[in-house]
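Study both lines:
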Amino acid sequence: MKAYQLTPGQGIDGITLVDRPDPEPGPGQVVVRMRATSLNYRDYLMTRWARTPVVPLSDGAGDVVAVGEGVTGVAVGDRVAGCFFPFWVDGAPTEAYVRDAFGGGIDGMLAELVALPAEAVVPLPAYMTYDEAATLPCAALTAWNAMFVQARLHPGQSVLLLGTGGVSVFGLQFGRLAGVRTIITSSSDAKLLRAKELGADVTINYREREDWDRAALEATGGRGVDCVLEVAGSATFARSLSATRFNGDVVIIGALATEGADPGTAPLVTKNIRATRVYVGSRVMFEDMMRALELRELHPVIDRTFEFDEAREAYRMMEAQGHFGKIVVRC
């Protein structure tokens, strides 16, 4: 089979196409013929962080083509998506559950065939394409966990979404699905228009309003938002705290922006804000999210789809951070 391999220390140029033996399912495993994969910013970071050669990408969807001894509940021909973590089925995360993630410590999805633990695949709704399903395991589940597990948002509350990458756009879609008021930022009026078309209640151009936290406060009558999905890091953390209501939630997801002054954590105390770090989510959370998506037949937002031999170009697009929603690579 064909697979991509990430060579440490070579960046995007270290992503090369190689021949590997077709995998055979061991006990408790299934083999999936991948139909589509998608990129997260974490996958771009792995081009610099990887310590050993690895098949990249955590997210993918395809067809089960073989099952190993002892597998139940999964059959040849099933359409499935892989989970981000191979063994985190339910409950709180533990060091053992999150030690390995696909495309990081262990081989990922950017291959024609992938052997996975049977408990690490989730069936797809009939309405959903492989391209769409491949966007869900990391970004979508991260947004779901942040909004509905950690912050426990309910209809009528509000969420502030920073930028228009995968997590934020899924947050926008989930907010609309759940009756949560959505406020989203971008430096691009064109992207904000797309966000409006997806149902955003308030849009803020942070180039025009550098005090975007004040704009969020104004949009909530001075009260502050109930939750912020903090995807940027130290450069935005202080303003995220400023935009959050007393006893609200800031859910820390990533660190896209690293420049900036001391983030200033005083509001964690003075406003009794809960700052929580989420690391994707469990299989059970994934199944809960899938039921919600299927109920309303929600379609993930895909900016661009690349073919298998264009994988490096997909990484270049992620590096530029100009996308709206998700970047997909078909297998």
The first strand starts at residue 2 and ends at 6.
